[in-house]
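hiii so um. not sure if this is the right channel but i have a protein structure encoded as tokens and i wanna go backwards to a sequence. like what aa goes where. can anyone help
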């Protein structure tokens, strides 16, 4: 009886899904920030060389 209730309980699965979504969002943010940082570095490098 306990195992049937444990199998039907989906609250743990929902928490795992939210965790995976949060991890994917974090990875997307890190990639975006890295790309912007690289572009800014190149831009400031070209500005400093032209001065």
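sure thing!! here u go:
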């Amino acid at each position: 009886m306990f195992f049937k209730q444990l199998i039907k309980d989906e609250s743990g699965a929902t928490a795992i899904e939210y965790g995976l979504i949060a991890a994917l969002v974090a990875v997307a943010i890190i990639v975006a920030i890295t790309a912007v940082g690289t572009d800014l570095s190149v831009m400031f490098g070209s500005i400093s060389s032209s001065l």
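oh and The two ends are 77 Å apart (CA to CA).
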